[in-house]
Design goal:
The structure holds two protein chains of two kinds.
Chain A lengths: L4 H11 L5 H18 L34 H6 L20
Chain B lengths: L6 H9 L5 H14 L6 E4 L1 H16 L11 E5 L26 H8 L3 E6 L33 H8 L5 E6 L5 H7 L2 E4 L19 E6 L2 H11 L28 E5 H5 L5 H16 L3 E5 L7 H16 L18 H12 L2 H14 L4 H25 L2 E5 L15 H6 L5 H6 L3 E8 L5 E7 L5 H13 L1
Parallel strand pairs in B: 2-3, 2-4, 7-8, 7-9
Antiparallel strand pairs in B: 1-3, 4-6, 5-6, 5-10, 9-11, 10-11
Helix pairs in contact in B: 2-3, 5-6, 7-16, 10-12, 10-13
The chains are: A mainly alpha, B alpha/beta.
């Protein structure tokens, strides 16, 4: 698997990461190694094998739909790096189109 | 100074008035101070631990000690949250994060009389096998500080080995409890998937992650498991299978049928001292009347690649929550919202975490999903079916916990694949969801610990622990 700049940029965009030019060279090299390591799986015959998604038998175990472990607004805001008394603050992201 | 090696010895002295919880906590605090160079703790909860000890001593004075784990001084891996305490998963991106709730395991420990003494260093978000990816610097192996303690629960293993606490909690996604337990010469159990609630454990690979205990004795592992295991309304994958009284089974003596992988023990990549320790254990078990037979697993080489496809995929999805907005580190003056995400994540995550997020993003992305992600899920089924088949005719599978003994700090940096291959024997239990334990079986010529691993069928922790107790007690 050849890892080119286009693929790195695409993955970085999806993963919301960014890399400097030097980091880019490094991550390209690392991902090439990692992907070819993963490609060893191509040698396994998986015809008629269903994907394993849950390792245990009991799935979809849900509790009663009752509110529990509530938190206060202050607690919810307490870890946000930038907030006021009511809201978490982020840079403006809605722009007005004229 | 002598430290207690079993909770029952400690409780004996507490109940007969020979010592107090406060004295025991103070002894550990002093020892932590003397061993700062190991870097096992990110934070010691000195004040809250001492206050808690005094509270428990009050119960002693009234002759009403409460709880199965009364007096147990325990450390927690920094990816398990404890209300009102900082919790960072050894990552810069969670700088200043103070948890607003406690993990289920923490609530259960405290309800049974345990004292939480601090949070323990680990690889960043549990991603690593040497504890060198921590934002707070590497942990050093107490047996020789030039060597790594293993990872990712390196602080949890080193702290127990160096008597900085009696026991600890770690988490294990691909070997992160068992491998450091082996490297530090202690016992570490990864329970069956679903046996212990993951509520309050920072997610890495959600179909693999399990919290488990690390300690000096099987007895303590059993007693901690009795408290932390069991169904939990807040983790839909926690199992409702009844929790056994593990500690009451420890005196059972029995002969078992044990399988071992010929390829694993006779492989030239296995360190000779580990190979001979494994062969010796095989002979010892045979002489005690166990049937020990080689079985083959031709998929052995595919275990680690399967694990890295699936665990990185799950991680890339889980880690989308770290956005620099709701908690933790936020890049300053990033400009717009998109740049806030990108800069906060790029500055906040370390290299190995970024590598795994990128790998996971790739295997889940359009055009590659079937060839990588679905493929690995299918191979996971093949490996699970074959392992469960072996475990239907054998009680245990034996193999070394690690192919090599601890290595020197810095020696495995720069080659992610070499580091990943160190997980070759531990990852299988996570792929299949079965329990695995590492027990100390001796030392290499250089005096570094060797660990052996036993796996057993799902929810058979009781049998596993009584067997390990039988081996260690002779």
């Amino acid at each position: 698997m050849v890892v080119d700049d286009k693929l790195i940029s695409h993955l970085a965009e999806l993963a919301k990461l960014e890399f400097s030019d030097t980091e880019r060279v490094e991550i390209k090299k690392d991902l090439e190694k990692i992907f070819s390591f993963m490609e060893q799986l191509n040698a396994v015959n998986t015809d008629n094998v269903a994907p394993l998604i849950y390792v245990n038998d009991d799935v979809d175990v849900v509790r009663e739909d009752i509110v529990d472990h509530p938190i206060t607004k202050e607690e919810a805001l307490s870890n946000a790096p930038i907030h006021d008394s009511d809201y978490i603050k982020v840079p403006k992201f809605v722009t007005h189109r004229s | 100074m002598a430290f207690y090696r079993t909770l029952s010895a400690l409780q004996g002295d507490l109940f007969s008035g020979k010592t107090t919880c406060k004295q025991v906590v103070q002894d550990y605090l002093d020892n932590i101070d003397r061993n700062k160079s190991i870097n096992a703790f990110i934070e010691v909860f000195k004040d809250s631990a001492l206050a808690r000890a005094e509270e428990l001593d009050g119960q002693l004075i009234n002759r009403q000690p409460q709880g199965k784990l009364f007096g147990l001084v325990i450390g927690i891996k920094d990816n398990i949250v404890y209300k009102s305490h900082l919790s960072t998963s050894s990552s810069k991106i969670l700088t200043g994060h103070r948890s607003i709730y406690s993990a289920t395991v923490i609530d259960r420990l405290i309800a049974e009389g345990a004292i939480i003494i601090g949070r323990l260093n680990c690889d960043e978000f549990a991603m690593g096998s040497s504890n060198e990816t921590s934002y707070y610097g590497p942990v050093r192996n107490p047996h020789n500080q030039e060597y790594v303690p293993g990872g990712s629960s390196g602080g949890s293993a080193a702290a127990v080995a160096a008597d900085l606490c009696m026991a600890s909690l770690g988490s294990d996604t691909g070997g992160s409890i068992r491998q450091p337990a082996a490297f530090c010469g202690i016992i570490g159990l990864k329970p069956t998937y679903g046996r212990v609630s993951r509520y309050g454990l920072m997610a890495y690979g959600s179909s693999f992650d399990q919290i488990g205990p690390m300690a000096h004795s099987v007895e303590d592992i059993a007693r901690i498991m009795e408290v932390i295991a069991g169904a939990d309304d807040y983790d839909a994958t926690s199992s409702s299978v009844k929790v056994e009284k593990y500690s009451e089974r420890l005196q059972e003596k029995s002969t078992y049928k044990i399988a071992y992988y010929k390829e694993a023990i006779e492989n030239s990549n296995i360190h000779p001292d580990i190979r001979s320790a494994a062969m010796k254990l095989v002979e010892d078990l045979k002489s005690q009347g166990c049937v020990v037979e080689p079985v083959s697993l031709k998929e052995l080489d595919y275990i680690v690649p399967t694990y890295y496809v699936l665990s990185t995929a799950e991680a890339s999805s889980n880690f989308s929550r770290y956005d620099g907005v709701r908690y933790g580190y936020r890049a300053e003056d990033a400009g717009d919202l998109d740049s806030t995400y990108k800069k906060s994540r790029s500055e906040g995550f370390g290299k190995e975490v970024q590598r795994r997020i990128m790998s996971g993003t790739f295997v889940l992305s359009a055009g590659y999903y079937d060839a990588y992600y679905s493929k690995a899920q299918k191979v996971r089924r093949i490996i699970a079916d074959k392992t469960n088949e072996v475990l239907s005719s054998y009680d245990f599978i034996l193999c070394p916990t690690t192919p090599t003994p601890p290595y020197k700090l810095g020696s495995h940096q720069g080659d992610p694949i070499a580091m990943y291959l160190g997980d070759i024997f531990t990852v299988q239990a996570n792929l299949v969801g079965v329990p695995g334990i590492s027990i100390p079986v001796g030392k290499t010529e250089e005096g570094l610990p060797i660990g052996m691993q036993f796996m057993t069928a799902k929810f058979q922790e009781g049998k596993l622990l009584s067997f390990c107790n039988q081996i260690l007690k002779g």
